[in-house]
Amino acid sequence: MAQILEHQQEGGEALHNRFSKDAYWHNRGDGVLQNRFGQRCMLVTEDFIVGFQLALEEAVGDAAGEIMYRSGFNWGAEDIVGFASNYEEEYGYRVSESNFGAVLESWWWPLQSSGWGAWRFDLSKKGEGLIFVDLYASAVAKTLGNVGRVVCHYYAGLFAAVFGYFASRELSGIEVQCYGMGEDYCRFLIGAAKRINAAQFWIQEGATASEVIQRI
Q1: Virtual CA dihedral for 133, 136, 142, 145, nearest 10 degrees?
Q2: 56 and 122 share one domain
Q3: Within its chain, how far is the Cα of 148 from the centroid?
Q4: Do residues 194 and 206 both lie within one domain?
Q5: Which of 66, 67, 135, 177 qualifies as a cystine partner to 187, CB 3.0-4.6 A?
Q6: What is the C-alpha separation between 163 and 202, in angstroms, rounded?
Q7: For 151-196, how does the pLDDT look when each residue is reduced to its tens digit (9 = 90+)?
Q8: Does one domain contain both 159 and 66?
């Protein structure tokens, strides 16, 4: 994950969210790549992503999606806790004391800078217990191409964990449309497990993303 950098402008005022590849990646020279906070990172090629996906599917079959989801969820749960601590240190405010949209963008922007894609979140149905996330240029789906199915399970878990952290309860996530199905972008639905399970049922029955959203 890319990291927030602090840049001093004339007069000493701190400017935040300044990104530079050379500044937030640190190559120790022994094959170890770290970010600003000392977390181990790796750069991978598109061939690696394709090979990893195919190898996992070959090894465990239909369970590959659930494994990717849980991996994304576990990473997101750990990452957002670290982010909240770093955010408070950087800005002097807790995430709960800050504008929610600004906090979300501060969390995602380093990921976008690292190649995870651009996003747009929709909180208009938050009062009904639903959050929508649109993802553009998914690292997984754009690499695999149109394979006729959803492939961004990792992101679904990631978003579920992060929004669950802010909601102070466990949430679930599902991808309801995907670039891997020929769509222009990927769309995720985040909510309580009962509603996400219902969405999963309708998707298996062949419902489109808009139909799923209407039915739940």
Answers
A1: 70
A2: yes
A3: 22
A4: yes
A5: 177
A6: 23
A7: 999 999 999 999 999 999 999 999 999 999 999 999 999 999 999 9
A8: yes
List the CATH number of the domain containing 80. 3.30.1380.20
Q: What is the pTM of this model?
A: 0.87
Whose structure tokens read 């405010």? 93
Instruction: Give pLDDT tens digits for 66-90.
Output: 999 999 999 999 999 999 998 998 8
Q: Does residue 197 contact residue 204 with C-beta atoms inside 8 Å?
A: no
Q: In the prediction, which pLDDT does 166 show?
A: 96
What sign does the dihedral 190-121-106-135 (CA atoms) show? positive
Q: Are residues 58 and 30 in the same domain?
A: no
Place of tokens 């679930």: 172
- E strand or H helix at 34: strand 33-34
21 and 90 housed in the same domain: no
- CA distance readout (Å), 127 to 90, 130, 131, 160: 30, 7, 9, 17
